[in-house]
Amino acid sequence: MKKNYYQPEDLKKFGSISEWNEDLGAKFFDYYNSVFEEGSLTNREKSLIALAVSHVVQCPYCIDAYTKDCLQRGIVKEDMMEAVHVGAAIKAGAALVHGVQMMNRHDQLSM
Amino acid sequence: MKTKSLKAQNNSLSKTEKQLEILANGIFKDGSLPTFKKKIASNNLPPIRPKKLEILQINVGYMCNQVCAHCHVDAGPDRKEIMTYKTMEQILKVIKNTKIRTIDLTGGAPEMHPEFRWFVEELRKTDVEEIIVRSNLTILLANKKYNDLPAFFAKHKVHVISSLPFYKREKTDRQRGNGVFESSIKALQMLNKVGYGVLESDLQLDLVYNPSGAFLPGNQAALETDFKKALFEDFGVKFNQLFTITNLPISRFLDYLIASENYEEYMHTLVDAFNPSALENVMCTNTLSVSWEGFLFDCDFNQMLNLKVDIPSRHISEFNQDELKNRFIILSQHCYGCTAGAGSSCQGSIA
After folding, report:
1. Closest to B226 (Cβ–Cβ): which among A68, A72, A74?
2. Which residue of A has its CA nearest to B224?
């Protein structure tokens, strides 16, 4: 057993998840590939969204993959960092908006 | 930014044997990755064979006014290798006796060759349809004596292909040296002024994009749209086509990959992106490369690895079309660079 939960080389083995359930694996990858095809959104827009979400879900594999994907698409680092901030702002907002729940509960319990 | 060639630094990677040793060993020897030959065989693809010879790419010497971080030639101001007048005459003789459509002049900076203009004029007197000059752009401003090159190019209907790694300053300067972006833009404006890249003109100006790092180029058409928009909006610059070229793991780019600990990951990226349909159009099938000494190679990359064509007549003075037509292309793991993703050649993507 490796000593770290995350191994960079495991990203290359992502496809192997299908070995233990071919049907669901194939369905997932088919869906995944369809999502990233150019549609109403450009590949460039999708890559930046994926990069931002990768940070929000804190997936090191996704961050590796989509940083490289952005570079390949000629996306500059300033745009990449802005996208990360969008994700971070939503995450911070999601935490902070619960402050209203805290305030409601506080007021309900307080005299 | 380094200002000396690997050769001048006495870097072991300036030796072709060392580069070939790295490409043959490590992950390719321990079986982590298949060699290029094995990859072709495992895809049930036939060996690469030459088709009709259409392009003669002539490297007139390794001297250059720039020392780019990714240069596969290891060119620079300290390189003195230069093609002799005699070799140029031998090339002209071959061109007159064959039906080669395109001459592709490269270097170094080919314009720095003292016989450059004479050679272009002589080439124009032959039946070749197209003369390409691979210009690094900054040479046009490097010295007064080069300032009239745009007019010279236009007069001889030279097809200009120029490297510009990115449409923004930072990435360009990081790869090619400080101030290169600004000079390149000025040079492009000079070329536009004499009619290059302009819609109503037949003077062709193409740009070459190659990634500033250990990743593959993106979609050529999408990058061309980005380049055209940015260069026109910011600088009023126009050009015809953008060619995306993958960096091959040899010479200075190999040095960078190893020093930055990206070598193995980059080779995995190239191998994973192997595209069988790119194999059909790799440039060694229609191009022949001539070195400053007059030796013949399957491509400019094999030239830099000193892998001469695999036939008895290896010099331009003994040019033998039958032997060349029936030869086998010499392969190593750097060839993965031409078959990755949308493929790569000196004319951009190929699949």
Report:
1. A74
2. A74
- A–B: how many Cβ contacts below 8 A? 26
B28, B128, B81: which is closest to B334 by C-alpha?
A: B28
Closest chain B C-alpha to A61 CA, distance in angstroms: 14
H or E element at residue B124: helix B116-124
Residue with tokens 């140029």: B88
Given an 8 Å threshold on Cβ–Cβ distance, is B222 in contact with A44?
yes
Give the DSSP per-residue string, B218-270.
--HHHHHHHHHHHHHHHH----S-EEE-PPPSSHHHHHHHHHTT-HHHHHHHH
How do residues B80-103 score in pLDDT, each as one tens digit?
999 999 999 999 999 999 999 999
This prediction's pTM:
0.91
ipTM score of the complex? 0.80
**Is the predicted pLDDT of residue B296 greater than 60, yes or no?**
yes
Assigned architecture for domain B12-339: Alpha-Beta Barrel (3.20)
A74, B218: Cβ pair inside 8 Å? yes
How does pLDDT run across B194-240, given as a tens digit for each residue?
A: 999 998 889 999 999 999 999 999 999 999 999 999 999 999 999 99
Judging contacts by C-beta atoms under 8 Å, the chain B residues touching residue A71 are 211, 213, 215
Q: CATH assignment of A42-109, given 1.10.1740.10, 1.20.1290.10, 3.90.180.10, 3.30.830.10?
A: 1.20.1290.10
